[in-house]
Design goal:
Order of helices and strands: HEEEHEHEEHEEEHEEEEEEEH
Largest sheet: 6 strands, antiparallel
Structural class: alpha+beta
Helix content: 25-40%
Number of domains: 2
Length: about 280
Amino acid sequence: MIKIIQNSFEILKQFLLFLFIFIVSLIVFSIISATLEKAHGAEYRYIKVPEIVFVKSADIFLGDIAEIHINDDSLRTFVKAINLGTAPLPGAWRFIKGSYLVNLIKARVENSFNIIVPEKVKIISKVVLVSTKEIEEKIIAFLKGTDTWKNRLGENGNLVLQGDLNLEAIAIPEREMNFKFKVATGDDLLGATNIELSIFDREFLFKKFWVRVNIAYSGEIIVANRDLRPGEVLNDAMLDRRVITIDNSPSRFFTAKELLSEADLQLWRHWLKKLHW
């Protein structure tokens, strides 16, 4: 009986020893697995910033300059949106210290992943050149939309800029910019005049300068086919259409589009009489 009790006790002791070893092994395995998983995750979740980056937005975010390898969509979106300040002027650059980026990321994100950055990062703003031809086209489009011209040109008339603008290509940021124009004085938009050109980056003025232009109308106009006497009654037989280029006061001629009705004819009679044509 005593021997049976001793054997039972020995079996129980071996079982408890086995159970203890199993539990300890399980704990050690769990710790090792967690450590390996953390190391593996850190290896495949990382942020990498090159030494030189080109940006085109006015405000710089981490997603603009870095490779961000994070599986979690919401976390990746959050990291991309970390603000790094404003971009340098077009064609210019500035430096950001790598240590600043590391500290900034760690302050914003608690999750652990590798951050690979150089000692300093050079950030350069992308630029595009607006050619003189493009500026001419923008000025013409502006003039055509003015009160003086928007209802006068028609299909057979156009505005042109005579001579050179004496203007070089303009470097602007590679993003949407707003061009605004303003005529110096008056509304007689023919001949030589000055136009103010302002370029805005969002609501901020980027550049402003004056352009000297010589505006001409090219197309059909309505003219008298003979000398007219003061007070003479005007009729259609006295009028001709001619294709011509004019760069003097637009109030002294009528475009082909304005030859529309008897009411227009009465208007011409009024002006011709007033001008002593």
